[in-house]
Amino acid sequence: MSKKKKKDGKGRLTYKGILEITRGGRGFVIVDGMDKDISIRPENLANALHGDEVRVEVPEHGRKFGARLEGVITDVVRRKQTEYSGSLQVKQHFAFVVTDSEKMPVDIYIPLHLLNGAKDGDHVMAKILEWTPKTKNPVGEIVTVMTHEAANDIAMKSILAENGFPLNFPDDVLEEAARYPEGVDSKEVKKRRDMRDTLTFTIDPVDARDFDDAISYKPLKGGNYELGVHIADVSHYIEPDSALDKEAYLRATSVYLPDRVLPMLPERLSNELCSLRPNEDKYTFSAIFEINKQGKIKDYWLGRTVIRSVRRYTYEEVQEIIEGAEGDNKDVLMLLNEMAQNLRAARFKKGAINFSSQEVRFKLDETGKPIGIVVKESKEAHQLIEECMLLANRTVAEYVSGIVVKDKPVPFPYRVHDAPDESKLSIFTAFAARFGYKFDIHTPESIASSFNEMLKMVNGKSEQHVLESLGIRTMSKAVYTTDNIGHYGLGFQDYCHFTSPIRRYPDVLVHRVLQECLDDKVKPAKHMEAQCRHCSEQERRAMEAERAANKYKQVEYMQDYVGEEFEAVISGVSSFGFWAETVAHKCEGMVSLADLRDIDDFEWQEGEYALVGFHTGLRFGMGDRVKVRVVSANLDKRQIDFTLAEVPQGKLRTPKNKGKNIAAPTKPKQGGGKPKPKRKR
Q: Does some domain include residue 387?
């Protein structure tokens, strides 16, 4: 992506990168391999929008903006967003959509023959079909009429579109998916290891519809066991460069919102042919281990199989059995759980970091409105499956990493995670030291050991939330790449994603390369690194969509609690206020600096993650408990505003102007939302 080239002999260079546009309107193109972004003046943006992949032209000895080169966008390679919601206005000879998005500066022109049944005044979703650099308005068609849909349904669809995920599959993709026959073919079965007589079952969330992994168990002579990890063989169905393959690659991931899943594959594949449903023969790609009770691997086999799951468990059912309830295959589940816990313990002993994270699930009514919030915990039933999947992922990566073709490693989509950034780590360790936790930062291994020791010691203490949260922020982001630097957080030298091909495209790539290696017919992929970058970017967009949707549901939920007070924990601090997360429902809102001015003038102390009162010494820091009142819940802005319900008297300390006559802080006034002019000092 960072490669430059001469253009038309005039000493101009072109680059390809991702465009970011600031609030002021200036653009910056981020190019892989370049230390500085390329600056773009507003008049040189053409019709490129924030998040688009673009080509930018830079004079070889051109002018600069600060330390950056200045350029001109010449072409949009790929749009981040191609579908927009908005209001349809139909005229005599044409129509146009006024979009809901502030990021789309112009209306979308709709030819009358592309209205697809939509009428004047309808709320619609329009898809851009053509938008040349010389054309002011894009040309589009109406793909969905949303006039009679609920506001929260429109919001979820808009969030998906904003992040570049198409809401519907093209007709040719659906037709291709519909051609595949039911069941398994006897000729194909003969090419595979037949596992249908081995005890096999799935363990998934209660609301899961696509079952992409199963595990099998069989006792072996000599006291060891056979543990099979079986993964839906999506690559059997998706042929490279087919319409189905291109669409799966474009999406690269399924997106999980609180009230829906936008799948990577059409339902015919994701929920039917590939899903490992009970009492159905299915094609799978498997990692089969000879293992002892202590979790020690004696041998393994990788290859294509055919299985038949005999039972579908939910996590809750398995957890009840682990905790003592009776149930099907109890002895097997208890043994597998013991193996998993031993694998888990060995992982942490070798340097994996034991960060815990809380996930929130919304209880929704029939209209999609949240009526309750549940915090999901990771229990031993979840860990049983997690350790089996980690084992399979690691083993596949180790196998492929050991293969060399023409003195070069096989191009392969590893899942890597770099060591923490030194600057972030130094800030965090200094902060942790205030609570008495010391870090050895001499080696990556000692850093991981220090993190685990801190996480063990902090468990159950008041500072647990803040240190876990800030610790996670020091970590690098995991990505896909052919550069196998290992996975720091998991403590693995080799790692990949093999176990979820129904919902992740990198797993499909892994399956294809793995089969080539097993067949000794490796065909090195020329564009593997570019595919890895695309998948990493799509993963990031999916996470942004999921965060936005969760925030929308939080706001929607808190609309019923405006004026009420809640216990909360400070989850973030900035120069303009602090964020607090309610203890009861994990909903985050902001207490602005303006709402604190009745108490004191506050200074932001960045290194301490705190706001400190100039006169009173009152301190609001990450992890502190506060009582807040809900002032507003704005769905358009996806924003919850809090005000401080009462001043935490126990937080007072010696003020900076000790000895002066300072009135004691009082309970903030009701409402608290009107900012006062800043007092002069």
A: yes
